[in-house]
Amino acid sequence: MRVAVLLEDRCKPNSNAFTYLKKYSGLCERECIQFDGDKCKILESACPVCFNRARHCPDNAVIVINLPEELDSEMSHCYGENGFRLFRLPAPRQEQVVGILGPNGMGKSTAVNLLSGSITPNLGDWSNRSPNWDEVITTFPRGELRDYLALLSEEGVSIAVKPQYIDKLPKIFEGEVNELLERVDDRGDIEKYSEALGITHILSRKLGSLSGGELQRVALCATLLKEADVYFFDEPSSYLDIYERMRMVRIIQDLSSMGKRVLVVEHDLAILDVLCDLLHVVYGERAAYGIFTPPRTTRTAINAYLEGYLPEENVRIRNKPIRFVRGRTRGEDIGLPILKWGDMEKKMGDFQLTTGQGQVRSAEVIGVVGPNATGKTTMVKMIAGELEPDQGWCTMEAAVSYKPQHVSTDFEGSVQLWLDVEIGTKWRSGEFHTQVIRPLQIDKMLDLDASRLSGGELQAVSIAICLGKEADLYLLDEPSAHLDANARMEAAKAIKRTMEGNEKAAMVIDHDIYFVDIVSDSLLVFEGEGGKQGHAVGPLSLRKGMNRFLSGVEVTFRRDHESKRPRINKPGSVKDREQKANGEYFYSD
Ligand code: ADP
Ligand code: ADP
Ligand code: MG
Fold first, then answer.
1. 586 C-beta closer than 6 A to ligand 2
2. Average pLDDT of 260-264?
3. Reported pTM
4. Most buried of the four, 156, 384, 420, 448, by CB within 10 Å?
């Protein structure tokens, strides 16, 4: 089956793509490329010549794909003749947490919408506005999924969904947290869940005044309060620190042991690993099509994902595997100190930050970890010279390039132009192109409007701009936010290579342990009580730092014997107890 997928936002009137397609729309007798007003249509039955014309459409606005015949009968949904296509579906299962792992733009949220009943699967017949449920059900092979869809069609299951984009919540609901929660509280459990999620102190705040992490926890709470049979969590860990991620894991697992079906879309691999019983991988081509694999055990699925090869499907999803290095130790004295600080203090409103003494050396990447609101950003801003410490000292003889936590742009023009303006021609070729631009897939975004990028795309470009500037010290605040698992690992490698190659140093704040493990040579650990006081310890060696940090969270890691990736031990398991007794929270041999 050959189809053309048209990316509509790249084909607006007056765009290059629009003009190009318009030019060819009249050329072929069969009208393979047509216009209905401003809307372009490329027929599935188009002739080879027209498919070829479409393939060469500027700005990569048309993706022509050849799908294997055996998928013909397995399309679950299609958004339109030239829209995104989804094949097969994951299956929510009783008493299990089922995870979905895959890149952005592959239909994960679409699957959540289909399985939660907010859209009905059209089996590829996009013209059919009200598909017949009986037909839908019998199309899927007998099994969990088919049984589930039958229940869904009879409204035999109640459903609760934590949507991906929580920043929309304050716009939909203008009141206080309390009012929102009371509205959905079916069981009278507000107290229990708001305590479990640590949000009791913000109940009387307006939704609009909350930080990202607070808003995420409120959204989780609202979902948990609903009495439902099936729970969907679309990217639940965004904005949460590792403590909150672990709390979220426990609460979601409790749901499944209460007999509920739970489906989770997540990009933090360590969290996905400890959270799920089974995992579906989704692969395909971004914005064009996605194919769900059958469920695999979580360990097998994540290892295959990191390896870049799905053996059962015989599909390569990445050219190179993602590798975790074991027993990495960096000589303490390597490199010249770029920056030193001592006993800094800073008061921000009711919050007080203190630091010990520390330094950053050239070619070193320092991971910065710790709970939300303990002063990580405040410290980075002092180093970047945006804030003055009240007490103590910080020597800065280095030029700083800084990527803030919340990235945004009002740049008017294409990504290409934005890069030119920010970092000159540097990104166009050579090392920077192979080490940063291509791995982050920015080469595919060049023609896009900078102001219309998705969260993940904007993050990738912002990282590239930060790394592309001439500086001695690079400060990156939460670069993994909005990136999918693959982009996270690529970003970690890109940051590391840039520092090693140019003898520069970086400080990277993040909550994703795999990301931190790959990127860091050493760790700066923040401790304290969020919003009240924080203290920066270190930098310590990666191993020491991880130990210190994880003992605070009471989480232990072991290494997977095959992939060498860190894996969270089940709380209370033999390994967990053994490692805690030995003080080995991060097993890194
Ligand atoms: P993911 O959650 O994996 O990032 P989504 O399911 O959100 O992916 O989107 C997959 C593709 O489907 C994207 O290219 C998106 O633009 C497209 N898409 C999503 N919703 C719609 C819709 N309502 N109409 C048309 N296209 C859509
Ligand atoms: P982190 O990066 O660890 O999440 P931050 O450094 O952003 O923490 O913030 C630490 C604390 O300082 C938070 O409680 C935050 O609300 C407070 N804070 C930050 N900036 C200001 C400010 N300009 N005025 C008052 N309080 C602030
Ligand atoms: Mg999504």
1. no
2. 96
3. 0.90
4. 448
